[in-house]
Amino acid sequence: MRPSGRAFLVGDAAHVNNPLGGLGLNSGIHDSIMLSGLLGRVIRGEESDATLDLYDQERRPLNIEYVQQDTTSNKRRLEEKLPRARAANFEVLRRTVNDPTSHRGYLLRASLIESGRKSRQATPVAMA
Questions:
Q1: Exposed, middle or buried: residue 127 (CB in 10 Å: 0-12, 13-18, 19+)?
Q2: How far apart are the C-alpha atoms of 58 and 123, rounded to whole Å?
Q3: For the segment 59-118, what is each residue's pLDDT rounded down to a tens digit?
Q4: Using 50, 70 and 90 to split pLDDT, how confident is the model at 120?
Q5: Which of 14, 11, 19 is nearest to 74 (CA)?
Q6: Residue 1 — very low, low, confident or very high, per pLDDT cuts 50/70/90?
Q7: Residue 119 in contact with residue 34, Cβ under 8 Å?
Q8: Integer Rg of the chain from CA
């Protein structure tokens, strides 16, 4: 049975977020990887049509946890008017860059690699 009557949105089309940091594009890649795996299983008859519900169930919370939180933080940092607060923000970023563990953690989160790992743990069937 082939799926019919469904539409799937990915990246910026699927998630309301501001464009700061390019996270909508990055999440779109992760969305597409998951969705293509699910669609392949359904089209090949390995899974039922209901399996496609996993896409929204998994990707939406990850978008809220990663993309929306990070783009909101980026926007707040850029909009900060108080010189002291701006300096404090930059100091946090400097410390992050200078600490290998924090730096790696920041990069894993900002690149959405962390969310991809979390995604595969949440629904192994979705990501082969």
A1: middle
A2: 8
A3: 888 888 888 888 888 888 889 999 999 999 999 999 999 999 999 999 998 888 888 887
A4: low
A5: 19
A6: very low
A7: yes
A8: 18
What does 78-111 look like in DSSP terms, one character per residue? HH---HHHHHHHHHHHHHHHHSHHHHHHHHHHHT
d(CA 10, CA 25): 9
Structure tokens at 9: 């949105």
CB 24 within 8 A of CB 11: yes
Instruction: Domains for the chain: give ranges and CATH numbers.
Output: 14-122 (3.50.50.60)
Binning the chain into helix, strand and coil, the percentages to the nearest 5 are 70, 0, 30
Cα separation values, 124 from 11, 89, 114, 118, Å? 21, 37, 15, 10
d(CA 118, CA 94): 27
- List the one residue out of 59, 65, 46 whose CA is nearest residue 14: 59
pTM confidence score: 0.73
Which residue is listed with tokens 């039922």?
Answer: 48
